[in-house]
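Quick look at the format.
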Amino acid sequence: MKYTTTVADYLTWRGDIPFSVDPFNEVDNLVLCIISYINFRRFPELLTRNPREAVSLRDICQKLTQEDEQLGLSQLSYIPVAQQAAQTERFAGTRMFAFEDRSDQETQFAAVTFLLPDKSVFVAFRGTDTSLVGWKEDFNMSYLESVPAQVRAAEYTAEIMRLCRFHKVRIGGHSKGGNLAAWAGLHLPHKNYGRLLAVYNNDGPGFNRSMTERPEYVLLRDKMHTFIPESSIVGVLLEHCEDYTVIASTAKSIMQHEALSWCTERNRFIHLEERSTMGRRSDDVLRDWIGSMTPQERKDFTDAFFEILSMGGKARTLDDVQEMGLSGAVALVKEYAGADEKTRRILVETFKRLAVDIGEEVATSAQDGLKQATDFLRNLGRKKPTE
């Protein structure tokens, strides 16, 4: 069945229904996570840690310009969604504060907190942006007990719960932000569990197995809500021992990771019985690939891969990689040729292992996704046209 209704339709059809009539739901969670991608750096008033000084979402949205467009990987504009939400009765009165955005050589982290009309608090973590640091953190999740962004997410959430000590709290994020939300929830002091209403992981990676074996994981299972589109691959990386809900999307293949493509019906996503055939295959491929590597192999591969991808530190973002064009490709080859024997072996074996697995799966499905991915990879090797 073809589904077409998305978040924008939800805001149009149900935006006039206040939380007092229809309580906070899973689609509201995604709306706020989408807004958290927007670049709020021009608004110092959002840096306040005092909830009483929180700024109206509507006031902020009236000042947004193209300069403030979202910092995620999506090619779509998120500002119209924020502005649409701000004009609805449902989100009227929503206020924002505690905006934080930090990026250094080890960490890519951003968060903002919403005070909602139902007197609850929603902590939203931004997903991966175009920085290579952010991408390396994602890879590091496959072998480290924690990455800096996860540690900061737990600290940030604990701080918000202290600042809003009389409020119930929800935590959420999309992509990497979903993983940060789940991590923060699992690392809350036990005394705060009663105030935690829900944790939303919207197509974000899970954890390595050691985390899923913690007693806190069992205690919070009923409060954790994980949503994964039927064919997306991001949300099935690592372990998801909690139950997850498969949802419909207007997009195909890997493009289902785009939050604006998720299908809605009244006050919920459109739930499906199971992952698509392609989704189930990619689940097995990715988990087998990650599982076949030792933690040390994952670390060596990640370090070597990003040393090459960054041209030895010259590139800091995916845009830099694309901008370098042919000269960047030559630099990649030189960096690779200069790698030591151990690193070369790990890179060759890892890429060979993944290439074989993916080649077998592509032969049976994912033709559309392959074309989209191929086009993207081709563009990485070209210089952008001059303005």
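Next, a different chain entirely:
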Amino acid sequence: MSHFSTIKTQLKEVKPLIKALDQLGYVVNQEKKFVKGYRGQFTAVDISMDLPSETKVGFKWDNNSNSYELVTDLDLWKFDLPVERFISKVTQMYAYHTIISKTEEDGYQIVDQINKNDGSIELVLTKWES
């Protein structure tokens, strides 16, 4: 029998989470507040997405950890990326957008961005003092 799994993350803000998912090419739905699983079961989420291969996932706010949890039916996970790699990519883009947002608020600008062969992203920032 299949069931929904919740996977803890360190994703605490909705704006960089949505920007990360958008940048990775996933269609985010904030109106559809559920994820469908095995035998038509549903579970409530704050953000839902349909990944390729009919894989259904969502993110749900957890008050105990003050972060979003990934919600999916792992038995129905058919997406090419393993769930751990999916979370890793989302977390990386979330961190990227969080850094960009916070540094821009503090007056920094991106001078250079290098996407490295190992998948990491190197940012060079500057701040002009007046």
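The chain has one domain: 5-126.

See the schema section for token definitions.
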